[in-house]
Amino acid sequence: MADQLKFEDFTDFKKEHQAVAGSLKNELDAISTKLSCIDQQFKLSDRSPINIFKGFTDLNIADKKQLL
Known about the structure:
Number of helices: 2
Shape: rod-shaped
Helix content: 55-70%
Oligomer: single chain
Strand content: under 5%
Largest sheet: none
Distance between the termini: 68 Å
Order of helices and strands: HH
């Protein structure tokens, strides 16, 4: 019976799970942001060169700074 799990073991498992889940959530958020940027680039690429700045008003401040 030396292999019995104790309450502290579950606490350790919970802490480890929370750390891993938090890391995965951060990675998922980063990937989601990248996909959103790629989607926005595809939308902007369909525009004609005459109206190249038409989508500038739709961009957020960070994107505008990157362009400038």
